[in-house]
Structures are given as structure tokens and as C-alpha cells.
Amino acid sequence: MTRQPEPEPVVERRPDRQAIVVAGGRASRLGGIDKCALEGNGTSLLERALLAAGPVDTVIVGRGTVTQSATRVRYVDETPRFGGPVAAIAAGLASLDGQPWTLVLAGDLPEVGSAVPLLLAAFGRPRFPAAVDGVVAADGGGRVQPLLGLYRTTALERALHALPAIDGASVRALLSPLVLAAITVPHASCADVDTPDDVRRFGLSLPDGAAGVERVA
């Protein structure tokens, strides 16, 4: 009897990637605190973003402190300071070595860890379209969170160069020329922390000694 050959194991593709964590906002609705320092269960929002990014070269743009051991991580400032997320992305790309894919993460997403594996899995599907410039997270209602996405690095660079100005530019304007695939993720994964109500909803608090104009009650 002829034996059928054993099927070859399926090897999941993972993009060669780098990561940018956008952590330079003013947090004006939270009294100017370092909201990336907000923590729950002993893990800050910034550390959650780094864990989600994985062991890749990562740039944190803005402020924030990593209390756990973190390798392959560096800090830069956007130009000008508080120039907005597009300025942060530009600063991050300028300080990285140019891996083919760039993971862009907001530093204030409490549930970011449940979304990133879905973005990476979308890349690994067979027949991933070559024309697609990236995959971006969307909640169950179809709302897209552009600061939770995996983008072709060259596409981001082209889009940045096409902008008339980077300071104050909107992420929507940056990404408008790109062909993006929206990937539905758990609803809470796209929710950021902007207000005291958000802080309470996610059970977060500022650790002792964290920088801030006022504490979040």
C-alpha cells in the first residue's frame, strides 16, 4: 500500500517589523498627567504597549517610564514637542532602522494586547494582498483606530513626505493615500484613555511619584 506523504507543517508568517509607541500627548482632559503611567494590576499603559509590540526594535515618542526590564527600546521626542501623533510617527521612523513593517501603537490603549495578535494574524493569511499598505484595527461598530495598526514602512514614509506640513497634521490626512484593510478586534481594544471616566472604567490609577498636574480621583 502506498503511503501518502506527510503534509508539510504550516509556518505562520510574521512580518519583519519595528514599533512606534505614541506617548507624547498633553493629556489636557486629565490635568496634564503622564497618562501612559496609569496602571492597573501593576502594569502601566506604556508597558502594555511594549508587551503588545513584542521583542522588536521599538521607539517611544514622548514621555513615560518603563519600570520593567525592556530591551531594544529607546526614547525620542517629536518635533516640535507636542506636535501631534503624525509628528510622533515621523520622529519614530527617523530613529528606526527601516524594517519592512511598522507597528504603530497609541500609548493609552488599556486593552492593546488583545488586538495586536489579530493584526499580525491578518498579515499571515494566505494571499495577503500585495497592494495593501497596512492593516488597521476597527471595533465592532466599524470605528477605526489608526494608532493601532501595522503599516508598510515605505508607505508611511511616502505619506509623510506628501504632507504639506507635519506639525499638527491629522492621522486621517497622513493615512488617506494608503490602501488599508480594517481588521475587527475586540471593542475595548480600540478604546483609549482621555477622561477621568475612562480611567475609572478601566480600573486605572497613577502610581506614587508619577508626574502630573493633578491626581485622577
Automatic annotation (TrEMBL):
Keyword Transferase in record: yes
Pfam families: NTP_transf_3
Protein keywords: Transferase
Domain annotation MobA-like NTP transferase: ranges: 19-175
Entry-linked Gene3D superfamilies: Spore Coat Polysaccharide Biosynthesis Protein SpsA, Chain A
Highest rank taxon of the organism: Bacteria
Protein name per Swiss-Prot or TrEMBL: Molybdopterin-guanine dinucleotide biosynthesis protein
Native species: Labedella gwakjiensis
